[in-house]
């Protein structure tokens, strides 16, 4: 192989390696619904859907265990309980929307 081809092969390898490093840095390979933030002498496990009003100090310093999830407010709860709360919340919102629609229909708005 000529030196010119080796130079281009090396350049392509560095470019691909840099691409993988950048993708890893932005979390493209992270399958967990949280990321780790180093804060002082400890790590905080911050959910991807964190409420912006919740400070980093308020999120857990341990990862969720099997069957657990970190809520947007930074609490670790059982995933089944969280799913149930979300389901009942959606049903409640639908009932409220139906009441608003019924009121609007009855008043002609």
Polypeptide structure, described:
This protein is of the alpha+beta class. Helices cover 48% and strands 17% of the residues. The radius of gyration is 24 Å and the shape is elongated. The chain starts with a helix and ends with a helix.
Summarize the structure.
The protein is an alpha+beta fold and 109 residues long. It is built from two helices and four strands; from the N terminus they run αββββα.
Counting helices, strands and paired strands, the structural category is alpha+beta
Largest sheet: 2 strands, antiparallel
Mean pLDDT: 83
What does the oligomeric state look like here? single chain
Residues in β-strands, percent: 15-25%
Total DSSP E strands: 4
Order of helices and strands: HEEEEH
Q: How are strands sequenced across the largest beta sheet?
A: 1-2
Helix proportion of residues, in percent?
Answer: 40-55%
Q: How far apart lie the N and C ends? A: 78 Å
Low-confidence stretches: none
Number of helices: 2
């Amino acid at each position: 192989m000529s030196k010119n081809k080796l130079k281009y092969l090396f350049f392509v390898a560095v470019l691909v390696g840099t691409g993988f490093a950048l993708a890893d840095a932005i979390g493209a390979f992270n399958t967990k619904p949280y990321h780790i933030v180093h804060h002082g002498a400890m790590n905080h496990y911050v959910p991807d859907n964190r409420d912006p009003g919740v400070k980093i100090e308020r999120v857990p310093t341990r990862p969720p265990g099997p069957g657990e999830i970190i809520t947007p407010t930074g609490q670790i709860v059982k995933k089944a309980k969280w799913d149930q709360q979300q389901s009942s919340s959606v049903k409640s919102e639908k009932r409220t929307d139906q009441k608003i629609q019924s009121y609007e229909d009855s008043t002609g708005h």
